[in-house]
Amino acid sequence: MDPQWAAPPAVDTCLVSSDASRGRRGGTLIDERVLELAVHEAMLKDPDAYRPAECRCGCRRLHVHDRRERRARGAGLVVTVMVFLCAQCRASWRVLPAFLARCLWRTWEVVEAALSGDERPLVPARTVQRWQARLAQPARAATQALATSGDATLRAVAQRVGLDGTRGALAAAYAEATGGASLLAPLAALLHRLSSGLRLM
Ligand SMILES: [Zn+2]
Question: Where are the domains of the chain?
């Protein structure tokens, strides 16, 4: 059974809470450079490539702790994810490539294809409906994160969308402003960094 289906309706609070606010030490980082599988595979060959520069505690000594396998449904893909341990506070950080949709169990490519209806990836219809519903929700926390990021381009995107704009509108405005090939992946990774775990959808 899809664990997402088993989640209670309150799952949407997950969209606005963060690793830090849940008081967790360590957590998930997303490497925004890695939008393609080929880049990910090249980086796995270099132990330093995925290593975070710094732990939340300020320590800069992070050691490779583990390699975990993450299955991406619909893409027939098993992705190796690097896990690092902080030498000082022992927090563990797993670093996801940006092409993986955190919490959705799929690559963003599959998510976007399912949402656009262009292709027929193996995504159950009600999962697609749930994703559509999320994109139709107001993007308030995400828009605020862009508005207060200190970056003029991001602030302009936030102003265009406005506080009542939806997540989908925000994604479209961001993709248009940045010229990215992917609609959701870069913004999802950016939000995760700007607002410590904030989810686009
Ligand atoms: Zn630490």
Answer: 26-107, 137-195
Secondary structure (DSSP) of 71-107: EETTTTEEEEEEEEEETTT--EEEEEETTEETTTTEE
Distance 32 CA to ligand 1 centre (A): 21
146 is written with which tokens? 């862009």
Tens of pLDDT, residue by residue over 81-106, are 999 999 999 999 999 999 999 888 89
Ligand 1 centre distance from Cα of residue 37 (Å): 29
Q: If you measure from the C-alpha of residue 85 to the centroid of ligand 1, how many angstroms do you get, rounded to a whole number?
A: 8
Q: Residue 104 is encoded by which pair of tokens? A: 């959705």
Distance 20 CA to ligand 1 centre (A): 13
- Full-model pTM: 0.83
